[in-house]
């Protein structure tokens, strides 16, 4: 089984790439964000720790669970709180991913396991993935996409871009670079080529 970690800046078009990979035979795609949401739901260990740490904050729904909008507002306006939240959630996601990767490897049914994570490099997923892939899309295209599809302001896009790794760092850590500046077909052809190469 080949375990590939996929990353790239926000607005790089990773969803399309992941959708294409998910259709490959004997392939499973895991999204770190979805895993985090699951682990932060009531009854899970992360949720209990969030309640302990952020109990005084107005981030909870009346019926229990987290109000995602309010949570985002709190952690993105306060760096210390963002670090606290990350310290609760990121290690739990990592443990989950490691367990699932071991389970899939043991099961022997998968040819390909794919993990998409924004902080793939920062959280050292190179230690458990066989290889890292970088989805490269020019900043001007990403900016246009984010403003059109998500309605982000120029300032918000600037803030997001400033908080992410530089292109040089992505390229330095990732074995494969998928250039996603052209057509979807061109990106898919690059994926097929990378998958056909021996590790």
Structure description:
It contains nine helices and five strands, in the order E-H-E-H-H-H-H-E-E-H-H-H-E-H. The chain starts with a strand and ends with a helix. It is α/β, with parallel strands linked by helices and 199 residues long. It has helices spanning 14-22, 32-39, 45-54, 68-77, 79-107, 139-149, 154-163, 167-173, 184-196, and strands at 2-7, 27-31, 112-116, 131-136, 176-179.
* Biggest pleated-sheet summary: 5 strands, parallel
Strand order of the largest sheet: 2-3-1-4-5
Please report the total strand number as a whole number.
5
**Average pLDDT, all residues:** 93
Tell me the β content.
Answer: 5-15%
Low-confidence sequence ranges: none
Ends: how far apart?
A: 11 Å
Rg calc = 18 Å
Helix count?
Answer: 9
General shape? globular
Order of helices and strands: EHEHHHHEEHHHEH
Q: Indicate the percent of residues in helices.
A: 40-55%
Structural class: alpha/beta
Give me the secondary-structure topology:
Layout: E1 2-7, H1 14-22, E2 27-31, H2 32-39, H3 45-54, H4 68-77, H5 79-107, E3 112-116, E4 131-136, H6 139-149, H7 154-163, H8 167-173, E5 176-179, H9 184-196
Parallel strand pairs: 1-3, 1-4, 2-3, 4-5
